[in-house]
Design goal:
Length: 311
């Protein structure tokens, strides 16, 4: 607990130093708030209260904070720089060593759009990792639209895009290829190009390598990815970034750039984030937004493995 408390305090200090003020939301939300993510099942623990209202334990902090801003920040001028340290809860597959209750630390930047906002989020993320002694961690940068745009350019339907996106988010490349082949919608050449795309990661050269693989929608997504990479470079964060064209997160509210954090000493993703401009609109607020969340227990494990605990 001493090590965990030190870790939490260090992260909150970094957030505060960058003008992200801590907020707190209820552990219990109305189920229709938690379920604002249209692409995937939230995995929330649901139950009824004594009045018959369907409630749920929060599965992450982004959706509750979006609700908080929409309902309580009407008279406050944006942008909103908010941070949190809280537990979240999610139903998981038994016997896979996954936590049903887990700590999250992160920030939400609401009101600054485009590459500028993404770059600010990445800067705070890298400063946070450095502060807790995880200077070797890599930040993966992808785009949530990339895969869907490629398949749409190949004339694939929405159902196939969703099924394969789920496989890609689970890093199930074999299952993804089976889905593409069994659908009978794409040529062998298109399937091969799509699968090869998921393996492209590295520096900005991978964006150039992917040029021409799809049509206009795919090219527009690559343009957006390049713009966000360039904005991150302008803030001095290029040395931590790995462009990953096969990245796709298992949360459907992302609307462009997405992030994942990897640490050489452990085999787990330490956190992630990205832009979620459309989510705010579901709560009646037309504001661009981006953020990241780090798994506290995984950060602590990475510290222990790397000898950086209680830094």
């Amino acid at each position: 607990m001493r090590e965990l408390r030190c870790l939490q305090t260090t992260l909150l200090d970094v957030f505060e130093k960058h003008d992200f003020n801590e907020v707190r939301t209820p552990t219990i939300e109305y189920a229709n708030v938690v379920d604002r993510d249209d692409w995937v099942d939230s995995g929330a623990y649901r139950f009824f209260d004594d009045r018959g209202e369907l409630l749920a334990l929060r599965t992450d902090m982004t959706i509750p904070i979006a609700r908080l801003v929409a309902t309580r920040f009407g008279e406050v001028e944006p942008p909103y720089r908010l941070s949190y340290m809280a537990n979240a809860y999610k139903a998981v597959t038994p016997q896979r060593a996954q936590l049903r209750e887990f700590g999250q630390a992160g920030i939400e930047l609401i009101g600054i759009g485009g590459a500028e906002g993404t770059a600010e989020v990445v800067e705070v993320l890298t400063r946070s990792l450095d502060a807790v002694g995880l200077g070797r961690s890599v930040v993966g940068l992808g785009d949530s639209h990339l895969w869907g745009c490629l398949l749409a350019d190949f004339s694939a339907g929405e159902d196939l895009i969703r099924k394969t996106a789920t496989r890609l988010a689970d890093h199930d490349i074999v299952g993804l290829e089976i889905e593409l082949e069994s659908a009978g919608k794409l040529s062998n050449e298109q399937i091969s190009a799509a699968v090869e795309l998921t393996q492209l990661r590295g520096g900005p050269e991978v964006i150039a390598t992917a040029r021409g693989a799809g049509g206009s929608s795919f090219e527009a997504s690559l343009d957006s990815l390049q713009q966000n990479y360039d904005a991150i470079v302008s803030r001095g964060g290029a040395d931590r970034i790995q462009v990953d064209l096969g990245m796709l997160r298992d949360l459907g509210y992302y609307s462009g750039p997405i992030l994942e954090v990897y640490e050489p000493s452990v085999g787990e993703v330490l956190g992630g984030g990205g832009r979620y401009d459309g989510l705010m609109q579901k709560f009646g607020v037309d504001q661009p937004a981006a953020g990241f969340s780090l798994y506290v227990e995984r950060l602590h494990k990475a510290q222990l493995e790397g000898g950086a605990a209680d830094v």
